[in-house]
Automatic annotation (TrEMBL):
Entry GO terms, CC: plasma membrane
Protein's name in the database: Iron transporter
Record-level GO BP terms: iron ion transmembrane transport
Superkingdom of the source species: Bacteria
Main localization (coarse): membrane
Keyword list, A-Z: Membrane, Symport, Transmembrane, Transmembrane helix, Transport
Subcellular location(s) per record: Membrane
InterPro entries per UniProt: NRAMP_fam
Transmembrane segments: 47-66, 87-105, 125-143, 150-167, 187-206, 242-264, 289-315, 336-355, 361-380, 401-420
Pfam families: Nramp
Topology within the bilayer: Multi-pass membrane protein
GO molecular function, one term: cadmium ion transmembrane transporter activity
Amino acid sequence: MPSTDSALPTPKVLRNLGPGLITGAADDDPSGIATYSQAGAQFGLNMLWTVVLTYPLMVAIQSISARIGRVTGHGLSTNLARVFPRWLVMGLVALLFIGNAINIGADLAAMGAAARLVTGWNEHALTIGFAVVSLTLQVFVPYHRYVKLLKWLTMALFAYVAVVFTVKIDWAQVALHTIAPQLPKSGWIVMVVAVFGTTISPYLFFWQSSEEVEEEEAKGEAPLIENPRKARAELERIRWDTLVGMGVSNLIAFFIILTTAVTLHARGVTDIQTSAQAAEALRPVAGELAFFLFALGIVGTGLLAVPVLAGSVGYALGELRGWKCGLEHKPTEAKAFYIVIATAVVMGLLVDYSGLDPIKALFWSAVINGVISVPIMAAMMVVASRKAQMGIFVATPAQKIFGWVATAVMAAAVIGMFVAA
């Protein structure tokens, strides 16, 4: 019987990419797809500029997250606790847990709804099935094998690239509206806040930082602060990994907005609340192929995002509590870590079955994520600039500038969200 390693080889193009690629791809989860779909349906081509703007900001903050993990050999929680009081970091992690559980529930529900549209099977049974599959893979498949599956799942995102080529597009108009959008007098600020909030999310900070530590340990290597000889190659790898990963994330978001703009918005369909609803709305407008690809993408991205959402909470809480953490460990070796992951997934399922309005639940999840992202980003910038923690590998001047700009933009987005509410 062949091993998992040989049965699931990593494509050469993906081999040198890792935490950055997976983090970026996981950002386009079903909840994010719903936000981008609504942006395109409601405002047409006039929201394309948002994902162009978020790209450099996302690259800056995620590369800092990865840098902190690889240099110090510790995840974000451990490093934040060296800047903030421990009780405050614990409060932020608790809010992260709540926000992620809601997001997991919304993503699982979206996957079930999308799969039902394609198969006709029971939606709740499919939702439970996806939760079980996701949790089983996280718990029982070692990280060095599991990461290969996650890399393959990033390919699901390109379903949204394929959708674009099933419809007719005036690329000159796309370029014009991206560079010079024609925004209405009201309503657009809320959508800009939503796009920024779903693109720059705190769970991604924790995940990429911890995965750098996981990769380091899997290779038997030391943190860069202890082994600076590998610094040049490793920091260059992180740079390219993050550039590509965030590029994929924002490119797919661009194509989702574009697809719904030229199909749904162009035909007067302007109210999309879920990703599955977007797929269903595409069917009569863009045809069966576009519908199938869109629905397939929802399931694929959900299978990628749920482990990242649950895993980031496991790392955040586990590191802070001093537990043994890591997907490379067996369940018997890191019981508390896996219990947190399982609890997050189960709570997500309970949200799906609770009768709560999923749209309102996602709104409050966005509020929570927005509130905690700003202090976390500010603390990350402080950590990345401290020689006491980073040694000679403090953030570069460009990272500091773009990182603080990203923090300021997110702070403005949070203020805008509360004003708009």
